[in-house]
């Protein structure tokens, strides 16, 4: 779920999800999906979810989810990893979707901010599994794992937040953090980590790419190309690492979706994508998202995709 998708905002215990599918051809980037296509090739239903979210669980852990202990919820970089640092000098911003405290600050997150083309709510609460594992807890857990993997390769990693603030940040601030990372030069890549909240039966992951937007103060022209490359690399590596199939409800089976309505992308001046790791409202996907071992694989896939992008 996206921080600035108002259709996914949870005003009460349940909310509808609206997505706009944009099938893309990305066969060259998805060669790593051969393993699952022989047994679980998804049919593109073309429908966006009509799923609903469960009530947020007050006091949910910001970093640890179900089964966290089995694979180490927040692994740290290995002490000797500096010997091999292929990403030294690269700056990556990780944007954990939502914030565990958002549901306690409805007034603040519903305040509208400028996203370049129009105004949207500051942030949203995110979704959850039917067992109450929140998207905000999931995104922080995966983001911590992702940070450790990238730091092992020598990258400088910055977060938009680490549950160290009551709510947010707002979508415009999330974009600014990426744009000004690395001492003002801007990040080499920004990845926003999410999980979807679609209907039961809608399964799989997808990577959201910025569409071409030239309106108001938004101009994505400089980042559309590199963001697509980043997204294609992540999609291929994510499928390889997790064994998950691309979403069967959007993207035509490519695992890629183009959006022009997300402020987090429209306001970015550096390559940026959103990764929807799976559908928390589908029981099968939720079972994977709730497993620490699977979340480590997800982080590995995203990290490998970022690495292959940054290393060319």
Radius of gyration: 17 Å
Q: Give the total of beta strands.
A: 10
Q: How does the overall form come out from the CA principal axes?
A: globular
Q: In sequence order, what are the helices and strands, one letter per element?
A: HHEHEEHEHEEEEHEHEHH
Fraction of residues in helix: 25-40%
Derived from helix and strand composition plus strand pairing, the structural class reads alpha/beta
**Roughly how many Å apart are the termini?**
29 Å
- Average pLDDT works out at 83
Structure notes:
With 312 residues, this protein is α/β, with parallel strands linked by helices. Helices cover 30% and strands 14% of the residues. The protein has nine helices and ten strands. The protein has a six-stranded mixed sheet, sandwiched between helices. A hairpin with a 4-residue loop joins strand 2 (112-114) and strand 3. Helix 6 (221-242) crosses helix 9. It starts with 33 loop residues before the first helix and ends with a helix. Residues 6-63 and 69-75 have low confidence and may be disordered.
Keywords:
9 helices; globular; 312 residues; six-stranded mixed β-sheet; 10 strands; 30% helix
Q: Quick summary of this structure?
A:
The protein has 312 residues and is an alpha/beta fold. It has helices at residues 34-40, 68-71, 106-110, 135-152, 171-179, 221-242, 263-266, 283-289, 292-310, and strands spanning 91-96, 112-114, 119-121, 156-159, 189-196, 206-210, 214-215, 218-219, 256-259, 272-279. Residues 6-63 and 69-75 have low confidence and may be disordered.
């Amino acid at each position: 779920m996206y921080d600035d998708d108002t259709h996914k905002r949870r005003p009460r215990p349940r909310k509808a999800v609206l997505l706009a599918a944009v099938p893309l051809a990305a066969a060259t980037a998805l060669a790593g999906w051969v393993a699952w296509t022989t047994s679980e090739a998804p049919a593109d239903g073309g429908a966006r979810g009509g799923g609903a979210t469960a009530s947020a669980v007050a006091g949910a852990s910001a970093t640890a989810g179900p089964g966290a202990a089995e694979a180490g919820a927040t692994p740290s970089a290995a002490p000797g990893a500096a010997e091999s640092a292929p990403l030294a000098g690269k700056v990556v911003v990780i944007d954990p979707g939502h914030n565990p405290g958002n549901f306690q600050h409805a007034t603040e997150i519903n305040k509208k901010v400028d996203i370049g083309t129009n105004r949207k709510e500051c942030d949203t609460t995110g979704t959850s599994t039917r067992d109450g594992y929140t998207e905000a807890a999931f995104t922080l857990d995966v983001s911590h794992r992702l940070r450790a993997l990238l730091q092992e390769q020598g990258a400088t990693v910055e977060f938009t937040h680490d549950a160290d603030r009551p709510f947010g940040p707002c979508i415009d601030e999330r974009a600014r953090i990426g744009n000004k990372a690395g001492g003002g030069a801007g990040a080499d890549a920004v990845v926003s980590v999410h999980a979807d909240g679609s209907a039961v039966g809608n399964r799989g992951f997808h990577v959201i790419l910025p569409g071409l937007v030239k309106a108001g103060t938004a101009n994505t022209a400089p980042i559309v190309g590199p963001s697509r490359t980043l997204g294609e690399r992540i999609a291929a590596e994510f499928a390889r690492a997790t064994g998950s199939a691309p979403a069967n409800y959007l993207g035509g089976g490519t695992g890629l979706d183009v959006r022009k309505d997300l402020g987090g992308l429209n306001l970015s001046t550096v390559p940026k994508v959103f990764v929807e790791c799976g559908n928390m409202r589908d029981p099968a996907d939720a079972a994977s998202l709730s497993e620490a071992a699977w979340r480590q694989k997800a982080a590995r896939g995203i990290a490998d995709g970022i690495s292959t992008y940054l290393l060319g």
